[in-house]
Amino acid sequence: RKEVEQDPGPFNVPEGATVAFNCTYSNSASQSFFWYRQDCRKEPKLLMSVYSSGNEDGRFTAQLNRASQYISLLIRDSKLSDSATYLCVVDTGGGNKLTFGTGTQLKVEL
Amino acid sequence: ETGVTQSPTHLIKTRGQQVTLRCSSQSGHNTVSWYQQALGQGPQFIFQYYREEENGRGNFPPRFSGLQFPNYSSELNVNALELDDSALYLCASSPGPPGEQYFGPGTRLTVT
Description:
The complex is a heterodimer. Helix content of chain A is 0%, strand content 55%. Chain A is mostly beta strands. Chain B is mostly beta strands. Helix content of chain B is 0%, strand content 52%. Chain B has no helices and eleven strands. In chain B, 38% of the residues are buried.
């Protein structure tokens, strides 16, 4: 079983749609959780950290369920510029080992 | 821009050769991590250096080695290159573990 699992997609959605990505992780001792965004042929960039209480940044909402070892990302009112690959990331080493999922590809269309 | 630079941008090597990839971190960032990203996959953690000492390692063989220097630069060395080593190699720096990691643009290595 992979340490971090994501649906690879692609998710093709119309502009303005709401889309949700899910991620599961296997190491129950994991401490920190993140969503990174990676544009085609570019480096990953931090989108947001994920906290147990859930957190929101504009159109983006992240949730963590430790009991189910499950992380989610919700994007509301999708924009064309949201098209990218979204990587679920788990810190399994107390700050010295980030484990990335394979990424979920999102394509927002007119 | 993240302030993290990598060189070279692209590199073509032959199986069995050795390669050195370089990274320059943001000033003040004591931690640098290296990742390998194969096509269609997420980045895989190779190792991390903190204040010039290895601070964690992923499931990569010993022919992958690294160095970190006091001037916030670092190197990834790969010996005895194999075809499967073809990938994008990313370095990422942060002020100190744990913390947000700032990625460089990567070096795309092709092994033929």
